[in-house]
Amino acid sequence: MPEDHDWDAYKVPPTRTPVSERTTSVPNPVNFFQTAFSYVLDTPVTLVREWIEKWQSKNKYYYYHQKFRRVPDLSECLEGDYLCYYEAEAQWRRDRMVDQEIVEIVRERMAACKQREGPNQFQNCAKEMELLAQVTKAYQDRYGELGYHGNARTCLMKQKHRMMEERKAAQEN
């Protein structure tokens, strides 16, 4: 490649872009509104938001790791204690959701084992099958036949009736 370039063919760009010259002495209204918006609205909001973020960074709160304290069961509530009834109902709903997730996780593990093992699933996934059978039986014993609108009171009555039937069957034997 030659050392001397053809300066007419490859022109060097100007080092500075020329500044457009103003033709009027009146200030641009857009610049005025941008500056006014920045000082009146943007700056205070930004300062408040930064202050809130600084305050929140000290107290991290993870809502998805919320731990509820255990409350008394519905059978332990005093008569007419409606707050206890409400808390027991909320506790029952949380327990039901947790039990549903446990069944779903065990079912997913079972499906993964079947997928992984293929034709040998009956002998290699026996432990998962037994666990799934136990978990679903326990879930059905507790929440079966309650339906979508089941609540803590109907679940408690179901458990009470089941215990009475077991006692009666034990006495007959």
| Distance between the first and last residues' Cα | 108 Å
**Strand runs, count:** 0
* Strand content bin: under 5%
> What is the residue-mean pLDDT, rounded to a whole number?
87
From the alpha carbons, calculate the radius of gyration and give it in angstroms: 36 Å
Overall 3D shape: elongated
Number of helices: 5
What's the helix-strand series?
A: HHHHH
Short description:
The protein has 173 residues and is an all-alpha fold.
What are the defining features of this structure?
elongated, 5 helices, NDUFB10, electron transport, transport, mitochondrion inner membrane, mitochondrion
Question: How would you describe this protein?
Answer:
InterPro entries: NADH_UbQ_OxRdtase_su10, NDUFB10. With 173 residues, the chain is an all-alpha fold. Among the domains are: 29-59; 92-144 and 152-172, no CATH class. The protein has helices spanning 29-58, 82-117, 121-124, 126-143, 152-172. Helix 2 packs antiparallel against helix 4 (126-143). It is elongated, with a radius of gyration of 36 Å. It starts with 28 loop residues before the first helix and ends with a helix.
